[in-house]
Amino acid sequence: MADVVIIGAGPVGLTCGIETLRSGMDAVIVEKGALANSIVGYPLHMEFFSTPELLEIGGYPFPTLRYKPTRGEALEYYRRVAVQENLSIRTYERVHQVEGTDGAFCVRTSKGSIACAKVVVATGFFDVPNLLNVPGEDLSKVTHYYREPYPYTRQRMAVIGGKNSAAKAALECYRHGANVTLIHRGAALSDRIKYWIKPDLDNRIKEGSIRLLLNTAVTAVEPRRLLLHGPDGPATLDNDFVLAMTGYRPDYAFLKALGIATRNDVYRTPVYDEASFETNRAGMYLAGTVCGGLKTSRWFIENGRFHAAQIVKHIETGKVTPLRLAERYWKTLE
């Protein structure tokens, strides 16, 4: 039996585990994939936009060879912090449901059950892409996750999107020999593209190295071409691969299965208290980027890591009675 079960072993989930242990309670972190699974899925040579001190957790300095750390450095940093803190982490174990009530939860997973008093959900949003919802999107030539440019050398490649991820992918693939067309449904690329990326992209578009199609939507994906609808109406584009950098969203089906409600707003924001991060389901908390709903630019590692201290502080106010309730509930399952 655990005091707290934390769902998700990303930087915020690890921080929740650290804060829980340092408060004198114990925690079990359950992760459906690898440690820091979202970062594992980032582009292989990705450099963070943030400086290392903004990514630090648990008070551990983040060493890096550059001004901004890379994906590999981040993975090693979070792994070492987890080892140093001796966190109890169960990877490749998926949570299916959480039964019981505040102080007496039973977390059902793909590998068994865990009784606990409280639950913290720190699942982020990177695992569920925003789909194009067009015919052919399920073809193997389409991906929503960019890893590296080499598979696209000498291929006719469409990058869909107008923000940082699409801009970086288009530039990298062009520089590794791909024939790149950047497709965006808006009238202009995002003004939030980083200042050191935007001029490079603008110049490549201006010189014709990267083709830009604005006010254009993909209406269907076929094995050797795309069907488009642009300013001049329907059109086709010869194509070998599609990289749909259309963003990601929280796993709303999972949140619903946990009993966490969402607000009826444009961002489908999960319901939680702004001070304690407790959701509408008593004893269950949200932490990190999942709190923003579809507004994925609200929370990052930089500010989401601070949710942990607020959650643990709230849990501490009633930890004795809930633990006794959890013991009683667990005995009913034996």
What does this structure look like?
The protein has 334 residues and is α/β, with parallel strands linked by helices. The chain folds into 2 domains: 2-128 and 248-333, FAD/NAD(P)-binding domain; 142-244, FAD/NAD(P)-binding domain, CATH 3.50.50. It has 9 helices and 15 strands. Strands 1, 2, 3, 4, 5, 6 and 15 form a 7-stranded mixed sheet that branches. Strands 7-14-8-9-10 form a 5-stranded parallel sheet, covered by helices on one side. A 3-stranded antiparallel sheet has the order 11-12-13, with no helix packed on it. Strand 9 (179-183), helix 5 and strand 10 form a beta-alpha-beta unit. Helix 1 (11-22) packs parallel to helix 8 and helix 4 packs across helix 5 (198-206). The longest helix is centred in the N-terminal third of the chain and has 14 residues, at 71-84. The radius of gyration is 22 Å and the shape is globular.
